[in-house]
UniProtKB/TrEMBL annotation:
One of its GO terms (molecular function) is isomerase activity. The keyword Kinase does not apply. The keyword Disulfide bond does not apply. Pfam families: ECH_1 (PF00378). This is 2-(1,2-epoxy-1,2-dihydrophenyl)acetyl-CoA isomerase. InterPro entries: ClpP/crotonase-like_dom_sf (IPR029045), Enoyl-CoA_hyd/isom_CS (IPR018376), Enoyl-CoA_hydra/iso (IPR001753), Enoyl-CoA_hydra_C (IPR014748). CDD domains: crotonase-like. Keywords: Isomerase. Belongs to the enoyl-CoA hydratase/isomerase family. PANTHER family: EG:BACN32G11.4 PROTEIN, ENOYL-COA HYDRATASE. It comes from Paracoccus onubensis.
Length: 256
């Protein structure tokens, strides 16, 4: 399909979603939010992993402040446009890698953080820029960030709105890894290829179990693990994984 604000391509089981408004650092306007939601909701069947990245020098600078200007109804916009987009990322039927190639600010940072894995170039920065314009972090930031880095660091990030270099973000546990700029594209491709060739249903069960763990007590989590593991144990991928192990070869997972 043709999109105005994003690009989407699929090759080798890897879907690449590129935020494509480089002149405004890939700022999120209403059209972009709708297109991200659509492409992830109607994901082509051949995609077994999605890489979400930005064109140009930035990943995403957050809300496009020229999109309706100060007259924008932020509550309605969050409810009607941001929430569906974030849920589309979180509920994507395959793993999502946020490949943060540059600045990720405001809602752009939190769009990245809702992905399953965040890989950033060393030159990238994460900024909770909201208080700079008299707002609070949104797009799931107040949910995701304290869980990742704890309340003390979350408060500092949100109150001071400092730019956090990718390497520090990785050290804090805000993201999975920061890699040298010159290696960024190759490492992201390798990681995406690994997921695209892996046991997709098992990956999604991992996502489900980790998400539930923040609300479950130990007994509830053990029950959930048993249920999800039982389902995994009945999969074609489990049978293939065991066969490959016994035959000392690389498994050929189908995602089923």
């Amino acid at each position: 399909m043709n999109y105005e604000t994003i690009e989407f391509t699929t090759e080798g089981g890897i879907g690449t979603l590129t935020l494509n408004r480089p002149k405004v650092m890939n700022a999120l306007n209403s059209r972009m939010r709708a297109e991200i939601t659509q492409v992830l909701t109607d994901l082509p069947g051949e995609s077994r992993c999605v890489v979400m990245t930005g064109s140009g020098a930035a990943f995403c600078s957050g809300q496009d402040l020229t999109d309706a200007g100060s007259a924008i109804d932020l509550e309605a916009t969050l409810r009607d446009e941001y929430e569906p987009m974030l849920r589309a990322v979180r509920n994507c039927p395959v793993p999502v890698i946020a490949a943060v190639n540059g600045v990720a600010a405001g809602a752009g940072a939190n769009l990245a953080l809702v992905a399953d894995v965040v890989i950033a170039a060393d030159s990238a920065k994460f900024i909770q820029a909201f208080t700079r314009i008299g707002l609070i972090p949104d797009a799931g930031g107040t949910w995701a960030i304290p869980r990742a880095v704890g309340a003390a660091r979350a408060m500092g990030l949100m109150l001071f709105a400092d730019a956090i270099p990718a390497r520090k973000a990785a050290d804090w546990g805000l993201i999975w890894e920061a890699v040298p700029d010159e290696d960024f594209t190759g490492i992201v491709a390798d990681r995406a290829r690994q997921l695209a060739q892996g046991p997709t249903s098992a990956y999604l069960s991992v996502r489900q179990a980790v998400a539930a763990s923040f609300d479950n007590d130990l007994d509830a989590q053990l029950k959930l693990e048993a249920s999800l593991q039982g389902r995994a144990g009945r999969s074609d991928d489990f049978r293939e994984g065991v066969a490959a192990f016994l035959e000392k070869r690389k498994p050929r997972f189908t995602g089923k």
